[in-house]
Write a structure and sequence with these properties.
257 residues; alpha/beta; Rossmann fold; six-stranded mixed sheet; four-stranded antiparallel sheet; 10 strands; globular; disordered C terminus
Amino acid sequence: MSRITVDGLTKHYGETVALNDVSFEIPSGEFVIVLGVSGSGKSTLLRCMNGLTPITSGEVRIDGTPVTQPRNDTAMIFQQHNIIGQLSAYGNALTGALNRNGFLQSILQFQSQADKYQALQALETVGLLDEARQRASQMSGGQQQRVGIARALVQNPDIMLADEPVASLDPGSAQQVMGYLRTAAERRGLTSVSSLHQVNLARKFGERFIGLRDGEKVFDGYRDEVTMDVIDEIYGDIDTEGMFAETDEDTESEATA
């Protein structure tokens, strides 16, 4: 497990300020959700934390070491699943060992028995062991995102970042994906940060919440502290009616996740 420190993080795209002096610490093993509307800086924050986007000023540190490029111990799950449609769920999960085996070995599945067993374990963690041989292109969006989580787990990360992992999914699939994401983090003891804009979904699965608005941190607290005043601070004039409501579909989906 790893501790994440974000210290005065600022990111400019030309004259546009995507992040402005954002600071927080995440202890090892904590499950954190970043809330905010589109354009609030959530994706930029996660990409800076993963070393995918250069920082204008400030610093991101993992266990005291500055992040300057992508790290093998940090896995990233994207909104677009980025899986290989022609491969099976198992084959896609195996590509998580790419950093250990190289691209050609991973595609041809010339990995060690340990890596292959890990891929099956990861698929079991996300509830897809029975679909291991199914071609990814024939799977639903929710299943494909769960394959993406399995691939991330095969990477053997200490940190798992997920950028809007359920944005393109229907409510039932979103519930399942977040449930499996939480389960994976708990089983592996991972430090996990996910970005979401759905407050009701975030409250079901999150422990701690960081709110961004116009690139600035406006909230950092835990579930019981996420009041309507906090939501108004994060979301501004956007209609938040129903964001806290739990529907029958939500409850049923959570139970099956």
